Amino acid sequence: MIRIGLRDARAHLGRFAMSIVAIALGVAFVVGSFGFRAMMNDQVAQMMATNADHDVYVRGTDRTDDGDDGSAAVSASGVSSSKYNPVATDLTGTIDAVPGTEPVAVTYAVSGLVLVDGAGDPVSTMGSPTLGIGMSAEHPWRAATFTAGTYPSGDGEVALHEFAARRAGLTVGDTAKVVYDDGPRDVTVSGVFATSSAQAGAIILGLDPATAKHYSDLKTSDPTTTDAIGVYGDANGGAPLTDAQQRSLADAVNAALPADAHAHAVTGDEYRAEATSSTQDALGFVQPLILIFAAIALFVGSFIIANTFSMIVRESMRGYALLRSIGASPMQVFATVIVQALVLGAIGSALGIGLGWGMTELIAAGLARMGTPLSGSAAPSATDALTGLAVGLMVTLVGAAMPARHAAYAPPIQAMNETVNPERPVARRGAAGAALCVLGAAAWLWIWRIAAMDGVPTGVPALDGFAAWTGAGWPLGVGAACLVVGVIVLGPALVGPAGTVLGWIPAHVFRVTGRLAARNLARARRRSANTAAALFVGVAIVSCLGVIASSAKASVNGIVDTGLKADFAVMSASSGRIPQGAEDAIRAVDGIKSVSANRFLFGAKFDGERVRGMTFAAQDTLFTDVFAPEAESGDANAALRGGQLVVGKDIADDRGWKVGDTVDVSTENTVVDEDATRKAAQDYQDQVAARIAQLQTELAQQTAARQVAAAQQTAAQIQQIGDEARQVDQSRFVRTTTRRVSRQVTVGAIIDNSVYRTCIIVNDALGDELGTKETMVTMAMYLAAEPGQDLASLETRLREAVRPYYVVSVMNRDDYKSTMGSMVDQVLLILYALLALSIVIAIFGIVNTLALSVSERTREIGLLRAIGTSRGQVRGMLGIEAAIIAVFGTLLGLVVGVAAGVVIRATYAADGLEVLSIPWGQIGLFLALSVLVGLVASVSPASHALRQPVLDAVGDE
């Protein structure tokens, strides 16, 4: 029986072509997702080995979840160990005294920089940061090798990573600009360096350590602490230490650390392993996203496989009946079909594994062209390949199982009759599908009711409690599953009516071919429905996303048109922070009535707990000149001006707050102790003065004794001490203290705007009490023009004011709407590209179904041609069949997809999807394309049908 199955597989291999393509595409997504994840993991591991390359790291001992302490002093890679408490920077002296260490210093990294090339254009890449790292000959970055020039000296020089240099078109000696938080600075390129791994498109600048420390300190509330201190060992003459050497050095450092330092040394390997795992976990969301689309593609492909085997089994029923009549058991007949499925699955999976590998390589090449080169390996592992093979075989077996069962259990006598095997009735199946559709629609109506009635859908405590328990997620998912499965099950019962309705126009325009096409579909309702179902799934998801995207953009436009009072919005591409210099420049522009700068307050606690939302300080003009509040209770404008809390409804509901409640608002910030700092500086000066006075006494004695050599040595020592005192880094005298601020603040208003639902807003005065200048960063500004101002002229002046900062954008209302809408489009573009695969597979399904249908109807088509049907009429008949199938599947997808989009929009209306917008133009385009898809899909089957001589077709067995 295995030989028979293999023989049949070889005989039908041409008919399996489209199924093989479907399996290959689905498996390619599976293997590609694993390969891409492995490539990213490899890239992260390589970057960690390069960028966090110290032999030992000293970090905190206490785990913390804060991670927003503002510290910017990190390793050379910018890798932060913020899961632990920060450690004091002055531990470097203690660590430096440990035998076996290279000179120890904190490596400072500065984010949010912008490199400007010689032509005045900012240098950036897709989504990758620009990072400045302190490095010098005394404190080098071991993984960096200079290919030209040398380390930077002073704030007027920078060294560039070779990728940054190539991207900017700069070489050693060229002049460029670096934009810091306090403004742009002219710099000279001192050198170009390379690293062993690609930096994933990051623009890395080497800064003089003092410059890096200065700008790092500006962004931290506590310049005396850092996340981690990296230590190089000297045992191998500058080469990395072995694991045993790292452990020995870490033990020695731990022995030297003070007991109260809250610091602990770990080996570099341990540090890198933890950082690598953390980063890889953060990137892990990519793989499930791709696997979702792989599942969709394979689900769609399974319809093609089922159709293929159904028609092949139908054609081979007489052969299977003969096998049964000579003693073959049902399981043996079943096995012959399964063998064919295994061959099909193996071929498709093998092609899919290669295609998935190629897909990963193509993604890597595309990222490199867009400025994000990767050096991680894209080759799938043996486990990935076996997973792809298993998935392909499983999907094929599932698709072939029902046709194989039908072949095995059909009565032999009935199967031998060439005129039998009529299609089974679909009434019971239609009833089951309709029931599932009703159940799914009921679940969606329940969600809509919950959303419309603000979580209290019925007023009946038991039902309302059930609604609170389920939430929106479960009913939404259950409803979607029921509707998708229900439509697929119901499909055959709809084919007849759909053929009559959709075939009405073709039947009247093309009387013969149109009627034949509609009747042909009705003769094979299950097959036609399965083919349409493949297209239905993809179109449903695409149209659902289309409604959500259109509603999101319409909601944003509605907010801007009806809620935004400001004339301009200002945002920054530099880590979202607007530099203080740019903010000052904007405020100095003539013609501005008010400037509202939203400063985010990190780390605030309310009654001792963090809230799930944002806390920011705003000016009194926020509600009058930016966004008008929709107050659920209280007066938001008066509350903000009066120093009370203005709370978004989601947070208020979550915390159970009401207007008039008193909340304990607390923060902890590390601030400079001015008195202690002044005393430390004065103590140093006193020590220097005392030392110089002592040496001057010795010098006078040596001079009187005519000890010329000793006197010269003492004079030089005095000079050296004086020079060192004048050049001393003043930051070494900074003393800090932890300032704990707690205020009892009244909830003055609760607001329901979608813009503010997850925010707590305080005024500037309270914000300044709770935060510090370093921790409160401006992330957005809104500007209102004075009455009568020429907005176009004012916009020009504003853009001129921020031009030196390069990354700050001034947007008018139309620009702001366009920017918000383009963010939605960028996300959906990726989803549409992934979903396009399921549409492509569905098109292959139509081609496959028509091709097999033509093969099945060889004699019928031959008879039509024998009685005078022209070649054009045959092409037209098959084209109309394909177009009706495509339009049928598209209409089902549009109805379910648009309904899903409407329900999702209603469910999340309170979160910003306030306006329902159905993209009718897109829907019309889908329908037009479905007709085109059907016509294109019919070309190859029609050509095959017409190539066969009429007499051969009529005599076909």
From TrEMBL:
The keyword Lipoprotein does not apply. GO terms for cellular component: plasma membrane. Its main location: membrane. GO terms for molecular function: transmembrane transporter activity. It comes from Bifidobacterium moraviense. It holds the Pfam family FtsX. Residues 59-81 are annotated as: Disordered. It is found in: Cell membrane. This is ABC transporter permease. Residues 292-411, 833-949 form the ABC3 transporter permease C-terminal domain. Coiled coil: none annotated. The keyword Transmembrane helix applies. InterPro entries: ABC3_permease_C (IPR003838), Macrolide_Exporter_MacB (IPR050250). It is a multi-pass membrane protein. Keywords: Cell membrane, Membrane, Transmembrane, Transmembrane helix. The chain crosses the membrane at residues 12-36, 289-313, 333-357, 385-405, 426-447, 478-507, 528-549, 829-855, 876-900, 920-939. Residues 70-81 have a biased composition (Low complexity). Belongs to the ABC-4 integral membrane protein family.
